[in-house]
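go over both lines:
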Amino acid sequence: MQDDLIYDLWLSSVTNVSNMKKNTLLAVFKTAEAIYKASPEAIRKTGFFREKDIQKIQDQKDTNLAERAFVFIQKNQIVCIPKGSPSYPSRLEKIYNPPVLLYAMGNTGLLKRDLAIGMVGSRKSSADAVAIAKKFSQTLSEMGVTVVSGMANGIDSVSAEGALTGIGSTIAVLGSGIDVCYPATQQKLYDQIREKGLLLSEFFIGQPPKAGHFPMRNRIIAGLSDGIVVVEARMKSGALITADHALDQGKNVYAIPQSIRVKSAEGSNQLLKEGAKVVTQVEDILEDFVEINQKRKEMIKNAAAPAAEKFEAPEEKLALSEDEQIVMTAVTGGINTVDGLVQRLDQPVSKLNAVLMMLEIKKILKVSYGKITLLHP
C-alpha cells in the first residue's frame, strides 16, 4: 500500500508532463509503478510520446521527492486518492482529463454526497452579489447540499463561508498544493474548511499557485458539481471557464441576473442571453433535482441555520447516512408527515427537510404538502 502510494506521488510530482499525458500513461501501463519501471523503449512503442517527453520522464525517475512527500502527508493528515481507487469521486471519473491523484484535507465523505452545487463568480464583486452568494450557499447547505467553490477572494470565499454554517458544508478546490493557502488572506477560512469541510487539490505538495493551475482547478469544480451557479462574473473570467466546463460535462448552468450597469456582471448576464437558467431563489436550482412543493419552498425561504454540527459521512458507500436511517426508521414505523417527524425526533425542521430532500433524490420517498409517501413500501 505504501509502495503504491509512493509511485502515485512520484507520478504526481513529475513536472513538464501534462495531466493528459499522465492519463495516457495510466491507460497504457495501468499503474504508476508500472510507468516508473517502464523502459524508454516501452514508452516509445506506445506511439503517444515524443522523444523529449520520454526524456523528461526518464530524467525524473527518482522517488526521493515522493518519499519525503509521503512522510509529510502522514504527518499532516493529508489523504491521497489515486485515480482508479475505490474512494476516487465517481463524478470526476466521468470528466475529460480527470486528475491522476487528489490530495484532500478534511471530511472526504463530502465527495460522496448526493447533491453538490458549485458557486462561482468574480473576485471583485458588487455588494449585492456578495450578499446573494452568502445567502444562497447558506440555504443550500442548510438543505443538505454541498457547496463547491475555489476559495478565491470574492464570490468563492463568501460562498464557502455561508456553506460552513449548514450540514451540507463545502468543498474548496485549490489552485495550489493542498498545503498552500492561496490567497494568503484566506488563512482563517482555509483552516475552517479543513476543520468543517474539505480542501482538495490535484497539485503536488508545496506547489505555488500558477496562472495555468486555475483553469485546471475550474474543471474539477465543475466535475464535482451537479450544477454551477454563476453569481456574478466579468467577461472572460474564470467563472465563465467553469461554466463552460460544466456545459461540456452536461451539467446545469445557472446565473443570477444583475443590472446591465454592473460591469462585474457582464459575463453572467451574457450567460443568461445564451440560455443559462435564471435564478432568483434557491428553489430555482433545487427544483431541477427534486420536486419542491409550495410548503417546502416556504421552509427553504425561512430555514434558520442549525447549530454547527459536523456531518460524519460514512466511509463506505452505504445506502443511507445515519440521519437518513433515523428518519427512515420513524417513517417505516408509521410517521407519515413532516410535522410528525419534528415531534417524534425533536429535530429542527430545516435539518429534517434536508434529510428528506436527500431521500427524495435517492427515490426512496416523496414529500407532498407535508405528507411523506414511501416509494418502495
Observations:
- The two ends are 43 Å apart (CA to CA).
- The first helix runs from residue 2 to 13.
